Task: structure prediction
Amino acid sequence: MKEIYLDNAATTRVYPEVAEYMSRIMLKDYGNPSSLHMKGVDAEKHVKKAKTTLAGLLKCDEKELIFTSGATESNNMALTGGAYANCRAGRHIIMSSVEHPSVSACGKFLAEQGFEVSYLPVDHKGRVMTDRLKEMIRDDTVIVSVMAVNNETGTMQPLEDIVKTVKSANEKTLIHADGVQAFTKTMIYPKKMGLDMFSVSSHKFHGPKGVGLLWIRDKVKVRPLILGGGQQKDMRSGTENVPGIAGMALAAEMAFSDHDEKTEALYRLRKYFISKALDMEGVHVNGGMGRGSFCLSEDPEMCAAPHIVSLSFDDIRAEVLLHALEDRGIYVSSGSACSSNHPAKSSVLAAMKVPAQFMDATIRFSFSFDTEEEQIEACLSALSELLPVLRRYTPGGRKHV
Ligand code: PMP
Result:
């Protein structure tokens, strides 16, 4: 049975070139980049090269990049490190109501520490309400955090409008965006866009797990979370994950080659998948249908990133469908993979006011630039066979036969 992996928003397969490159570094250039001898210098060269590559792709300065253990750490550093470093200016934080737990948990933590946290509501497509944001900004608002692309629905947030709204209300307020699902899937240049902090995770774009970065605009103050040997100019102690950092940079570079063509192809695939899925009975799409941008569009349907589709099904339990697809070698996710540790209802779908009956009936299909048309076809034909069969066994469900 051929494997059809459609859970790329959870993680991706490492590119073979990346794995080979990392393996070479681990076996040959295994020195500590802080060591003064040649082995250290050789290792340090890989870190420097990765920094140059990533700064080029993000169009930022090399000195603005901090390597981390992944986006959970980057988000924690941006929120808690940013809040503590700037708490003299105020103790009010705003975040959207659809943030990843690595941001929302920081909100809870900061609230316990005496900060005040406000949650920005979203519309039924999952886009933040920028007019509400305008009313929420105060003189003591230190950070606004809104993710670029939602990991459960693929909804793109109007970051350009958010920047204008925030900075015109309080130019000192810092804006952080969790860029995990956006970087490499969309053209996003955080510095040019006017953001102050931006989080990236390597394993979402065919790089290794356990490595990411936080871009912090020059002169923005953030308190380090990890203290120790003073690596990365005291901003993030700990021996750098040299193979991971190098692998992340190579994976990003590979993702950006022929980027326009690959993005076009992915949007075409997504559109085809959605239109065929909607031809089936009792299938609904959460979030936007068509290509989005980081500006609010007149058409609420036009807010989608190219790689994520969230579908809700009448009279189907997501977990049952997930395992029925798995039996056919098709791997998907129910809601968000990250929430399987806490199998509560999706707070993202709840914030979007998705009807209660779909809370347990939603599947996320997520693609990568490697996803092929045949894989999409195989998934669609599995769905069309499985849905009527599974509905027969759904207690109290309508019988679509
Ligand atoms: N933010 C978003 C939007 C994510 O999708 C994820 C990963 N599921 C993270 C943050 C956390 O990233 P990491 O796995 O690198 O800690």
User: Anything to note?
Assistant: Residues 70-72, 75, 100, 102, 147, 151, 178, 180-181, 201, 212, 338 surround 4'-deoxy-4'-aminopyridoxal-5'-phosphate (CB under 6 Å).
